[in-house]
């Protein structure tokens, strides 16, 4: 899947959870990505963000950064 498509999908998920309390949104986004995204998709978005190839909304960025810290290399 293209990096742009992954970023679009992740930001859409983030917009869904926007109504949650600040801080809770990133938790919910991270949980959603863990439960419903294939591990290869999660790894790809982590890599794309780390390399600066995609732009994510702030709570989505936080969730993806957490994924990167918790995923095995």
Rg (C-alpha, Å)? 11 Å
- State the low-pLDDT regions, or none: none
Share in helix: over 70%
Distance between the termini: 20 Å
- Indicate the mean pLDDT: 92
Summed up, the domain count is 1
Shape: globular
Instruction: Report strand %.
Output: under 5%
Which structural class should the secondary elements be placed in? mainly alpha
Main sheet summary: none
Number of separate strands:
0
| H and E order | HHHH
Number of DSSP helices?
4
How would you characterize this protein structure?
The two termini are 20 Å apart. The protein is mostly helical. Helices cover 71% and strands 0% of the residues. The protein contains 4 helices and no strands. It has one domain. It comes from Rhodopila globiformis.
How are the SSEs ordered, and which strands pair?
Blueprint: H1 3-16, H2 24-36, H3 39-50, H4 58-70
Helix pairs in contact: 2-4, 3-4
Protein traits:
4 helices, 0% strand, mainly alpha, 73 residues
């Amino acid at each position: 899947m293209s990096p742009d498509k992954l970023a679009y999908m992740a930001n859409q998920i983030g917009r869904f959870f926007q109504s949650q309390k600040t801080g809770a949104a990133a938790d919910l986004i991270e949980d959603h990505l863990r439960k419903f995204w294939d591990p290869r998709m999660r790894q790809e978005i982590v890599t794309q963000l780390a390399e600066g190839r995609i732009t994510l909304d702030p709570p989505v960025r936080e969730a993806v950064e957490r994924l990167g810290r918790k995923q095995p290399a």
